[in-house]
Amino acid sequence: MTNLRTVIETTAAPSARVVISGADGEPLVSIVVVTYGTGPIVLDTLAAVAAHTTVPYEVIVVDNPPSDGARTAEMLRDTTRGVILLTPPENLGFGGGNNLGVDTARGSTICLLNPDVIVGDGWFAPLMTALDDPVVAIASPAFLDPDGTLQEAGQVVYDDGCTAAIGGPELFTGDPAQVFTRDVDYASAACWVLRRDDFLATGGFDERYRPAYFEDVDYAMRVEQAGQRTRLVVDVPVVHEHGSAGSSEAAAVAERSRDTLRTTWRGELAARPARPDDRSAAIDNRDRLAGRRSLTIAWFADCGRRRWEQALDDAAADAARRPRDRITLLTDRDPTPERAAAARRSGLEIVVVATTADPVVQRRVDHADDVRRIRTPRRLVRPAVIVAAALVVGLVVRWLVLRSPAGIITADEAYTGIQSFEILSGRFPVVLGGTTYTLPLESYLYAPIAAVLGANVVLLKLLATLSWALASVALAAAALRLSNRRTALVAGLLCWFTPGALLLISVSAYAAYASGMLVSIVAFVVATTLIDAEHPRRGMAVLFGALAGFGFWLHPMFTASLLPMVGVVLWFHRRHIGVWIAVTVGGLLGCSPFLAWNAANAWPSLTAPADVEGTYGERFRGFFVDLLPRAFGLRDLALDWQPNGVIGPLLYVGLLALVVVGIVVLARRPGPRSRVLLPVVLIAVFPIMALFENLIFANDGRYGIIAFPFLLLAMAVAVDELMGRHTARAGGVAAVVALVWIVGLIVPTVAPLVDDTDGDPNASVNAVVDRLDEVGIDRIYGSYWAVHPVDFVGDRDLTGAVFPFWPIRFPERQRTVGATPPEQVAVLYLTTDEDPTQLLLPVEAYERSVYGDFVLYVPTSAAATAGN
After folding, report:
1. Which residues lie below 8 Å from residue 129, measured CB to CB, with a gap of 6+?
2. Pairwise CA distance, residues 787 & 804, whole Å
3. Residue 139 has pLDDT above 80, yes or no
4. Contact 437, 482 (CB under 8 A)
5. Radius of gyration of the chain (CA)
6. Would you give the DSSP letter of residue 65?
7. HSE on the CB side for 789, CA within 13 Å?
8. How far apart are CA 217 and CA 186, in angstroms?
9. What is each CA distance from 115 to 81, 237, 576, in whole angstroms?
10. Rounded to an integer, what distance in angstroms lies between the CA atom of residue 675 and that of residue 682?
11. 13 DSSP 8-state letter
């Protein structure tokens, strides 16, 4: 210990700014403060000690003389009363100054305190209590920067003698989750509480480190070598004005002291970890001293509120019983601040993730020696049962729709089937016939079915149902990425039990609608993976770009949801040029046939379509006033509110409120970066949609499919957030939500259709086909809406052409019918568009027949021949 002639005095300023009055008798604790040219901040430190220390104490200030300037002692004599002031004749350094202060101290407990540390109310008692554990030799609090951010929650010592503050710039920067009580490699001696006898028996600080740095590391390593520990105590963090004390030559002094440490502890340091390359290694380094690593996983959705809170309390109690082990609770929900603080004080580490799919989950499982998963022991409804029942109910609902008047095959659907015949004939379209965009993907998918089974209206329509089912699974996967299993179940069920107009779309063979939705959802899932990856794989980036490009080729309207996804991915990886290149290459590959077709045909897709009435503002307003209510079944085909003008709007406002809640929850929830993707997509999708003039048409609700899955995703997040406070059974919540959804939105859509069901909805089409077969006519001409359904149902035995003022989807079929004598061509109308002036022969040359909504004109010559 230091033995120099030192002046010892007690300050007694008449009008003191700081009065130390805590040691009128024998002090319990001696607070030692070492200064070296320290400014007025030491007065703030002493004032805080005087205000917040409730046990008998004394304050000893050891004022080392600076190389130039006034000593701090002069200021203390003029501004303080009751401070024991030691003024050694030479600079003893940090270690020597503290050794001198401890030699002088009368208390059995010592607190070494930097002159730039500000303590708070209740600061000392938890640190002193930690010394009740005989294994603990040093107790130290967490340190905060003056702005309240985490500066240090213990430190790690590496094999090269360097140290890193946990919560500092190198390890878990600013992470408040690191503030939990535990054993650490060492903690900065800016605030240490320890037993005086232990400090003296250990020899105090090694003065070879004079003037400063690494003497506290050396002391902590001696403590550990003796089988004791440094304990981080987080009850009351202190504020540390880091770096305000000390000299400007700190870096050189620190390097010299580190050399001393490496020389002294060469063998011990060789066994210490190297600097970590990733977060997993950083956790291993932090937990080097932990005896056993026990992980409890408690998803709120699996436990329920009471069981989840019990899991938190049990884990905290376990941490208190096992101070040498690492007890960690992994969960998807933040405890209340009070519960979290109490648990962390006991030594429990709480790790909160936004989604059960977060990579942190697997890292923590791999890190643990034992894993315990908390679940509700008995489930009223198992998720697997819910999924199976939902599949059956959804198929039954769609079967009822297919057997109702809504199951009539339309001309646009029939196009999909006829195009599959064209594909089987060797004609492979890049875009929808008669247009300059939209890939007829469903035609390619139906072609092998048509080759084996021919024309089948139900199978053709069920292609959309298959895409819808896959989209529901993909949406559940997206929800799992963003949240948890309960959210995934709810999102998948909401999508499968699609309401209103979109229920009809889910059994309609419209080209690229259901498949486009599926592709956009899969792109969303891949985008979340890319956003969360610090160094994404190039292949994943190419895949995402390809999905975005393919979605654009399927139908340009899906750009409204895909473009924001691309923007968010590129923003998060704006410094990774490789990701930009990979996404761009993938995008070009995804729509390369479309680009090649355009290049070979003088870029027809760039030609502006026919003008559609309506402004940008009218379209944007129409999405919310007409399109979305129609899509959700709250407006009928005439855009009247359902079930009435009061309940319908209220239900709609409720749905929108759920969407807003979901967006807010994701925006505010801690977790992976990808949580922002859904809010960005939902904010951007409607302004982009409004750029497409054709999207002003809202009557059939089909364009609602662009935003539909993302609205459902936000609703599912909101349901999880709101229902989670009352119940956590994933299957039960999903079942209740699905039931309410079905009763409120699906039954009103399906009930009128079921009431109108009177057999095969396509009986009229079949009757027309049968009559044409009777008269031996295989060429038909007429209304677009009548010809295409009959052409498809007639399988490859019929060839149809439409009046020239209609869109010409199949030029080859037009030419074939045009070259056929009129006496061998039947003319076909719907009852709503019949116009005999368009007949190829005089009206008296035909036999007119009506089959439901179809009007068939058969040349009398053919009819007579058939009669004979």
Report:
1. none
2. 13
3. yes
4. no
5. 39
6. P
7. 24
8. 6
9. 17, 16, 45
10. 12
11. -
Both tokens of 100, joined, read 């001198």
Written as one letter, the residue type at 550 is: F
Question: Smallest Cα–Cα separation from 517: which of 488, 540, 547?
Answer: 547
| 652 and 629 Cβ atoms separated by less than 8 Å | yes
Give me 325's structure tokens: 């082990």
Backbone angles phi, psi at 854, to 5 degrees: -105, 140
DSSP labels for 272-307? SPPPPSSHHHHHHHHTTT-S-EEEEEE-HHHH-HHH
Give CA angle at 639 (638, 641), nearest 5°: 120
Taking the chain, what is the end-to-end CA distance rounded to the nearest angstrom? 129
For 555, the token pair is 């139908």
Q: How many CB atoms lie within 10 A of CB 758?
A: 10
Q: pLDDT tens digits for 257-290?
A: 999 999 999 988 988 888 877 666 788 888 999 9
Rounded mean pLDDT of 788-806?
A: 94
Both tokens of residue 755? Answer: 């009431």
Spatial separation of the C-alpha atoms in residues 492 and 498, rounded to whole Å: 10
When pLDDT is averaged across residues 767-786 and rounded to a whole number, the result is 95
Q: How far apart are CA 241 and CA 232, in angstroms?
A: 19
Beta pairing class for 136-144 and 229-240: parallel
- The span from the CA of 329 to the CA of 338, in Å, is 16
- β-pair partners for 616: none
As a whole number of angstroms, the distance between CA 552 and CA 30 comes to 73
Encoding tokens for residue 437? 């965009």
Rounded Cα gap, residues 287 and 187, in angstroms: 14
Contact 780, 800 (CB under 8 A): yes
Higher pLDDT, 20 or 192: 192
Which residues are registered as beta bridge partners of 118? Answer: 239
SS3 for 246?
coil
Mean pLDDT of 669-677: 80
| Cross-strand pairs, 812 | none
β-strand partners of 18: 80
- CB neighbours (10 Å) of residue 400? 16
CB 413 within 8 A of CB 458: no
Q: How many Å separate Cα 737 from the centre of its chain?
A: 22
Query: Which residue stretches of 407-512 are H helix?
Result: 411-424, 441-453, 457-482, 485-496, 500-505
Overall average pLDDT of the 69-88 stretch: 90
Q: 3-state SS string over 175-243?
A: CHHHCCCEEECECCCCEEEEEHHHHHHHCCCCHHHCCCCCHHHHHHHHHHHCCCEEEEEEEEEEEECCC
| Both tokens assigned to 562 | 């895909």
DSSP structure class, residue 244: S
Q: What residues have CB less than 8 Å from 466, skipping those under 6 apart?
A: none
Q: By mean pLDDT, which of 333-342, 442-451, 728-737 is the weakest?
A: 728-737
What is the tens place of the pLDDT at every residue in 489-546?
A: 889 988 998 888 898 899 999 989 999 999 999 999 999 999 988 788 899 999 999 9
Q: What letter represents residue 762's amino acid? A: N
Q: With contact defined as beta carbons under 8 Å apart, do 401 and 324 qualify?
A: no
